[in-house]
Structures are given as C-alpha cells and as structure tokens.
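Record type: ASSEMBLY
Status: queued
Input:
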Amino acid sequence: MKTMTLTMPLDMHVHLRDGEMLETVAPLTSYSFSGALVMPNLVPPVTTLDMVRGYKKRIQAAMESDDFEPYMTLFYQNYSRSFLEEVKDHIIAIKLYPSGVTTNSEGGVASFDIEAMRETLEAMSDLGIILSVHGETNGFVMDREAEFMSVYEMLAVHFPKLKIIMEHITTREAVKMLDQYENLYATITVHHLMITLDDVAGGMLRPHLFCKPIAKRPHDREALLKVALSAHPKVMFGSDSAPHPKHTKESCGCGAGVFTAPIALQLLCEIFEANDSLDNLQAFVSDNAQQIYGICPDFKEVVLVKHDFVIPEMYGSVVPMRAGETLTWSIERVD
Amino acid sequence: MKTMTLTMPLDMHVHLRDGEMLETVAPLTSYSFSGALVMPNLVPPVTTLDMVRGYKKRIQAAMESDDFEPYMTLFYQNYSRSFLEEVKDHIIAIKLYPSGVTTNSEGGVASFDIEAMRETLEAMSDLGIILSVHGETNGFVMDREAEFMSVYEMLAVHFPKLKIIMEHITTREAVKMLDQYENLYATITVHHLMITLDDVAGGMLRPHLFCKPIAKRPHDREALLKVALSAHPKVMFGSDSAPHPKHTKESCGCGAGVFTAPIALQLLCEIFEANDSLDNLQAFVSDNAQQIYGICPDFKEVVLVKHDFVIPEMYGSVVPMRAGETLTWSIERVD
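Status: finished
Output:
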C-alpha cells in the first residue's frame, strides 16, 4: 500500500485556545506534528513573560505526547528592547493583529505608525524575533488582504533585516509579494488550498468553512496552490486551525475559523498527490519552516498510508472541516 | 407626529411557500400590501393551470384580509401557445430560473437556447405575459449576476415586445442595463438597499442575511440606492422575502433567503427618509409596478408613523431581518 513518510511536520500557525478547548485540541496537534507556532490571541492576549510561560505549561500539560514543541508567541504591542531581550529565549515570533480584524484582536494595532513601532521592530530585527502578521485592513471583505499589501511593503522596506511572515495568505497579490521583498515569507492553510468563497456562500451557507481571511476567488486559490505544491522556499504550512464549539458556529452570528488540526496532514497528502507533487510535501510541511525560523525540532516521523479515513463528526465540541467525509489518506503511525 | 401614507403598496417578488409556512407568512404580506407577485418555486414547481388555481386558493385561505391580490406566476418551462392562451387570465408573469441557482430551481432552464424558447417567449410577448427572471449564472458567486447580463441582452434583443423583469438586482451592471434596453425592468429588495457582503460575512457570519443573489460590494449598493431612491420608472419594489425555519438557517448548511415581509414598508420609510427621498417611495412601492405590469389593485391605504417599532425575534418559526432591533417607523393603520 502506498505510504508517505513526513519527518518533523510543523504547523506554523495554530490556535490552541485555553481551558477546556485546549484540553480537546492540544493532543490532536501534538499527536501528528513535531511543533507548532501557537497564536497568542487569548482573552486577555499573551503580552508578558509570565503569560508566555504559563500558557506554555498549560499546553504541555494538555498534550498527550512529549515529542512536541509549542513555539510560543507574544501578541504584538510596542514593547521595549529590554523587555524583548528578557523574553527572546521564550518566544520565536510576535504576532501582529490589526485592531478588530479577527477573533480576539481588539487589542491589536490601530494604525501603522512606523515611528511608533520602530523601537520594537528594530529590537526584534536585532534579536532575531520574527514578525508574524495577520494582514488585513478593515475594508470590504474581499479586498482586505490585497489592500494590506502596502503595509507589508512599508514594513519590509523599513526593516529589511526583520523576517516578516504574511500569515494564512489567500490572494494572488500576496503570492506575488513573496518574490518582491527578500524578508517577506508566508504561511498557507490547507483549507485555502481547497476552497473559494463559492464553497462558503455559493450554494448553502457553510459556517464551518467561514474563516478570516475569507476564502477568495478561483484565481487566488490557483496562485496559492502553485507556490504550495512547488514548495516555494518562502512558504510553509500553517493550518490556522481555529476551534469554535459547534453551537457557536451554527448560530445567528458565527465566529471565523476552520478546524483542521487532526486532518491537515491527510488533506495535504490528498492535495499534493492529486497534483503529482507529493515529493514537495516534506518541504512545505517542515523543511521550509525549519529554514525560515531557524528551528530544529526533535526527531519525529509520521507515516501516512493510502487508506480511507472517515473524518469524525466532532472532536469534543468542535466540528472539523469535511466532517463525516472520507479521506483517501490516513495516519498509520507516528514514530 | 410625522406620518407617511402609501396607497396600494405592492411587493412584486415574494415567496409565500405552502402548508404551515404559508399560514405563517401570507397574513403578514396581505396585511400591509395590496398585492404581491407570488413566486412559483414550490416543490414541485407550479407548472399547470390547476396548480396555479390550487395555490391561489390556498393563499387566499391563509390571508387574513380580503383586500389583497396574489398575482400568480408559472415556473418557466417551454410552454405551448395554446396552453399560454388558456392560462393567461390566471397569471401575470412566468418566472424563469436558470437550473440550480437558488432554492427549488432544479427544474429550471439548463441552457439559454433561444430557438428552443422561441415559441414560448413569442407567445408570452403576444399575450402580454411578463417574463420574470432570476438572473444568475453558475459562475463564481460574486460574478453570477454580472455574467448573466449577456443573457438579458440576448432576450431583450430577440424579443423586443416581451417585458422582462430582472429580479432582485444586486449589481451596478444590472442597474446600467435598465437604460440600455427598453424592455428590461427590475425589482429591488429592501435588504439589497441596506447590506453588502460585509454584513453577511465581513464580521461574524450572518445566516439571516444570506440570500441569492448574495449581497455585493458597496459600489453596487450605491447604484441600487440611486435608482430606487429616485424611483426610476423601470424599477419597482420586490422584497424577495423568503422564509426559512430558524433551525435550518442556523445550521451547518443554511439555505438562501432573507425574511422581510412584515417589516419591508417600515424599512423603506427609514431608508427613503434618511436620503430625503420619501416623496419617491410611493412610486417605488406601487405606481411603477402598476405601470409596468398594467395592474390596478383595489384601494388600500397604509399609514406609517414615525414611532419606534421593535422587530419581533420570530414570526412563527422564522427569524426576520434585524430581529430584536428597533425601527423608527411603524405601521399605524391600514385602511
């Protein structure tokens, strides 16, 4: 039977939440990944060393395996150099949210005043802390990411030694940026490789496919597929897996987020196989991220096999993407 | 207190459904409107004279007032001239659905073969039966209406004496068509005067604002407002009020439709007043439709007053648009 072995797969953008939800989702990520970049948008957001340490401990307590590294992040604010020096061995990135653009981003950046941000971004640049960015404006939903490109340009030009990750990119405009600025990189989710707005709102309305940034047009998905399938050295996998309880997704005001953590590797095998690109999957789900972030996860091997896997209807209170559907790849074992 | 009197208001596009749902919604429309064009997309669709008669009787039985005229329609198929002659005194329009574009449209037109449609459309043209069209392709959700303009053009050119209604238009492309072909007209809903895709999916996902055609961009809404507020003689009000039970709207696959029947006139007063256009509302909600359709409803007067009205959370099993919110206009009496 056809198999696919992935070594040290990494999810470079994941929401593990806290409390009961953390207990549900952390083991699902720690099972099949060697490490993951953990988003800091808790309530309140992670902004101090104590909060980083505390959150990391809670994650480690919730994991079911000890061969998993939660790469920690801070929620972007203007931090002093001395604080960043103190915290730098405990985080690998700082996540910047424009204010109000997604779940728990209210405390984010309201305006991109380069001078006000200079001390923080220069210190990050000097200390090798990566800037991870949710790149959306508050404009019309289909334009938000493309409109944000000017902010990426400004950041890339003003801080040429700062590594900047365009998180969960969804447009051809963002793909184009990868080759225009040496210090711009990107994560791509598995769902944005699969869906467009048509899947969310073209037939029935599908709350479990509703996410931010919203899925865009077919030509955008094609552009994402092209760089993912070829494992462009500046892109890496980040699931943006974001659990919400079923009752809040299926309600009159549903929050944004697609839950893919336990099925991401299986889905990626399907997509890469269907496009004759399985050979590039290792780079997309691990090697590129190791290179970009300069991280060396402990050895772990995930063996996938071409064997049907029926996605559960629920994981705890959370409905995963494609619940109840059958995937053609499953995880056989993790060594 | 400020009042607004509307005489013979008409809703030229409404879904009254059947059975229990008909019992819920028919009285809400018959209370505040003199008449309404009733959509034929039941299951199975209304395609025979017996079905028209039967459905009209059920509507009349469900109404709570007898001063309301249900203007009946057939579901478009290629009908013979003799059938159309037989049915013409019982309907005023035939509604054409491209196959699969919206609720219960599966039996619609799969391809626009003018020659195959010629007998039907020429007979309709000769007999003064109006062609009412759901104008969407099966393309990308944001492009479906604009892509359909070439079909409208083809129909308008081939059947110059046929009155064609572009139903529930949502784009500036459709607005532009009004002045390009003498025989093209349009209905506009109240929700498309109020919302864009941002309201549906820009913040939280709002299933009760999910409709087909989906709400578009700000510039599209502006174009609709412009012709509605000025009561362009070729546009008329059609609510496209489309009830779905709450549990099906708030689920993992929610159907398209916004329910506005009982609040449409109040909302229109708000919108027209806010844009200093109250003087044009009578034409938009009645006079234009009388002219276009050549109909003369019985006398009815709806008096609205500038007085707060809290929209109920539910009407039967249906959640209306803006449930629980307060409108500044209410219906004082109907004479």
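Annotation: Chain A has eleven helices and 14 strands.
Annotation: The interface with chain B takes residues 140-142, 196-198, 200-202, 204-208, 210, 214, 217-218, 249-256, 319 of chain A (CB under 8 Å).
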